[in-house]
Amino acid sequence: MLERIGFIKNIGLFADHTQEPGTDFTDLTLIFGENGVGKTTIAAIVDSLRESTAVTITRRRSLPGHEVPTCSVCVDGTEYRFDGAGWDGQPAFGTIEVFFPDFVSRNVHAGGGVNTDQKRNLCEFVRGRQAVADVEELSKADAETRTALSDSKQVDDKLRLLIKTPDNLQDFLALTEDPKIDEKITAARAALAEAAAAEKVTARAVPKAVGLHPPDKTLLTEVLALTDEDVGADVAAVIAGRTALLGERGEAWLDHGAQHIVDEHCPFCGQDVAGVKLVEDIVQYFSAAYRELVAAMNEGVSSLRDAAGQSVFDGVRSEVRAQLAVAASWTDQYTIDEAAVEKHLGAAETAWSRGAAQLEALLSAKQSSPIDVVSAEDAETALALFDAATAHVDAINAMLTTCATAAETHKKTVASADKVKLELEVNHLENQKMRFSNTVKDLLAERAKHLQRRTVAQQKKDRLKTAIDAHASAVVGKYEGGINYYLQHFGCDIRIGKVGASYQGGKASVSYKLTVRGHDIPLGSATDDPCFDSILSEGDKCSLALAFFLARLKDVPDLTGRIIVLDDPVSSLGGSRRRLVEGVIRDLHKRGAQVVVLTHDERLAAMLWRHSMKIKSMKNIMPLQVERAGAGSRIVPWNAEKATRSEYVEDYLTLNGFLEGSIDHTEAAPSIRPYVEQRLRHLFPGPPFETRDTLGVMIRKIREASPGERLHDLQGKLPELDAIADAGLPAGHATDDVAGMPPLSREELRIFAQKALDVLP
Fold first, then answer.
1. Residue 230: what pLDDT?
2. Nearest CA to 52 among 15, 25, 80, 19?
3. Same domain, 218 and 352
């Protein structure tokens, strides 16, 4: 039996709790407490002892979290202590069962779905600790098979480092020993050396043609033809004359001045230039269209100069010399006449330079007079010189191409020898020799050892799976039936099916399906489709978790010696399910289990307390309470009788206590009207009296009752009821709440309290 919680320090809200007198547990212990006072912490402590796990407690350390959590729990005369790192002992497995939020998240569902870890934990819960050893051994055997396989693969990786193409590991292991292997390797290497010379030939570069591109004729024609038709010849002549006088930057100077005339005043001297013909000509000449023309011209001129510059031909000359050097390595196949190349190169450079000079003269002339059209015929001579230079370079390229063709033909001839095949043959023979070396023999012996380990572990794994399956077939089927029994008992539309053992990842787990109103639902969460999270209400999820917990206990007729702790078993449940759960609790107790119920649900607490008064086997109930005390919580005796009274009974006892002198008049005054109202409702439940009827409304209904109606017989009580109503008004309010109605004196209150108790039989 769970006898008591000795002390709790630095766990949750229990900063420093020591057992208080009168808080020993009995075979039926009811622990009441509001939400957030520490009930689940108590369940967690008991579960931590059950599992002998520290993390259940350490993760609940009291804030700020630096103090060591400690506690003690007494079970069957033995006090078990937790020192912050672990328990000093553990009750026998099967002694304690705890239903609390961690059970749900560990075994049933969390985060809106059911994951693999929960299915694995559920397998242990369903099958019991007596079968966990087999599961653990299965897990170890699975781990051993994986480790052995990994170790053998590491050896395989070492072997692969020794194996040359074309053989793979399987081919390598199948090789046979050859006493003449060294002679064969020597002969194969010699054949390879003969073919190796061809590699240098096939890898040698061949000459390539050199590109020389003359300036763009179309662009040149467009640049020379640029003009501004809006500027007359006379204006152009005037500007030409002025720019000649102003020198090299004269045109730029005039353009700058034209753009900065403000209010018809010269930007340089400030004089009024309105009506000055020269100024008007300048402004017309240097218009926006003119500037766009000049920009387009300059862009084209820059591009043409880049294409015709001396640096272009310098690059061509360097590339020709480089390709001649490449061609020199192929003199056995073709010899280039270098003198002819130099002659063509010189002629090309001369023509290019002359063409560039003539082109520059044209471009400079155009830049000096941007709106003057330069005839395209003037450019023909320059373009012809560029074409002549290109023709000379093409003659050089013809020689380079002829050399390249001869070189490629020679490469193909040399490459016909199958060097790759010879290399693979050498590698294969060397692999054959390596296969029977001492290094490989040692690796193969290690590999065989790991494979034997894997075989032994796999055989053990198969035996354990057979044993586990046999046990699961006997246990899991009953468990499925038990879950569905409780789901049906709780009025849920959920059913579980196809419960079985699974070994995904080498670890035992429970697999199952859920159906809601006959339809399968995914156990995970989904964004768009109906699933576990979206279909099941919180009450359904609570009922499902409780069914999972209770199913394992369903067919155990004698639970003597078992401790069952239930933390908020009716969370999110409605009234009907609450009554059914209360019946399950009584059944567990009836079958001999010690049941500890922690709840914040006043109705469940009231039902358990009232049933304990009626049922002989439940009379040994211990009502306790978890309450906040200063900065922490504590476990104290709980006056369940008083806490579970109805308001009607509480008001009656208050008035009676006042008349007997045990209760102050300030407490009794507010109870007069509510007691009479509830008394009337008990005698004449609605209709005629509705739940919301006040005493004034009830009096009116009595007064209006006709002969023969139920309320007509109460008309003789109207004087007393009116008096109570009048007296109860100030009695239930502060003095300043009801103007002109001073509160009742102590003696007046005694009179009306007695009237309230006596007015109705």
1. 56
2. 80
3. yes
- Of 617, 642, 667, which marks where a domain is finished? 642
Helix (H) or strand (E) holding 500: strand 494-502
- How far the first Cα of the chain sits from its last, in Å, is 48
Instruction: Please provide the DSSP assignment of 556-574 as one string.
Output: -S--TT-EEEEESTTTT--
Q: Diameter of the chain by CA atoms?
A: 148
How many separate domains does the chain show?
Answer: 4
For residue 715, give both structure tokens: 């008309």
Tell me whether residue 513 is in a domain.
no
**Residue 597 near residue 7, CB atoms below 8 Å:** no
What is the rounded distance in angstroms from the CA atom of residue 324 to the CA atom of residue 341? 9
> Do 426 and 385 share a domain, yes or no?
yes
Q: What is the DSSP string of 694-745?
A: -HHHHHHHHHTPPTTSGGGGGGGGHHHHHHHHHHHHHHTS-GGGSTT-PPPP
Does residue 654 belong to any structural domain of this protein? yes
Look up residue 367 and give its two tokens. 């830049």
In a domain? residue 519: no
Q: Which residues have CB under 8 Å from 661's CB, separation 6+?
A: none
In a domain, 451, yes or no: no
Residue 10, classed as helix, strand or coil, is strand
In the sheet that holds 563-567, the strands lie side by side as 96-99, 563-567, 594-599, 28-32, 621-629, 632-637
- CB contact at 8 A, 638 and 622: no
Which of 374, 401, 435 is at the close of a domain? Answer: 435
SS3 state at 647: helix
Let me know whether 735 and 650 are in one domain. yes
719 preceded by a cis bond (ω within 30 of 0):
no
In sequence order, which residues have a C-beta less than 8 Å from that of residue 721 and are 6 or more positions away? 676, 695, 698, 699, 702, 714, 759
- 674 in the same domain as 604: no
Beta strand residue intervals within 305-394, DSSP E = none
Chain Cα centroid distance, residue 638: 46
| Cβ-contact 650, 35 below 8 angstroms | no
Of 335, 341, 322, which is closest to residue 407 (Cα–Cα)? Answer: 335
- What pLDDT does residue 101 have? 81
Tell me what pLDDT residue 234 has.
54
724/580 same-domain check:
no
- Here the CATH number for the domain that contains residue 592 is 3.40.50.300
Cβ-based neighbour number of residue 653 at 10 Å: 16
Task: Give 458's Cβ-side CA count (13 Å radius).
Answer: 11
Domain that holds residue 711: 646-758
- Where the chain has pLDDT below 70, the residues are 107, 109-133, 194, 228-248, 250-251, 255, 277-278, 280-281, 283-288, 414, 416-417, 471-477, 501-510, 524-528, 573-575, 613-619, 728-742
Q: What's the confidence (pLDDT) of residue 736?
A: 41
Structure tokens at 144: 């051993």
Instruction: Look at strands 28-32 and 14-18 and give their pairing.
Output: unpaired
Phi-psi region of 449 (alpha: psi -120 to 50; beta: other; left: phi over 0): alpha
Rounded Cα distance between 93 and 114, Å, is 26
Question: What is the Cα–Cα distance from 45 to 565, expressed in whole angstroms?
Answer: 11
Distances (CA, A) of 32 to 162, 624, 704: 73, 6, 46
**CA distance to 16, 61, 647, per residue, from 67 (Å):** 11, 7, 44
| C-beta atoms surrounding 277 within 10 Å | 9
> Beta partners for 11?
14, 61
- Tally of residues, the chain: 761
**183 and 325 within one domain:** yes
205 and 342 fall within a common domain: yes
CA distance 232 to 238: 10
**Encoded tokens for 707:** 């002969």
Structure tokens at 82: 């937790």
Amino acid making up residue 699 = I
Q: Report whether the peptide linkage leading into residue 64 is cis, meaning its omega lies within 30 degrees of zero.
A: yes
379 in the same domain as 272? no
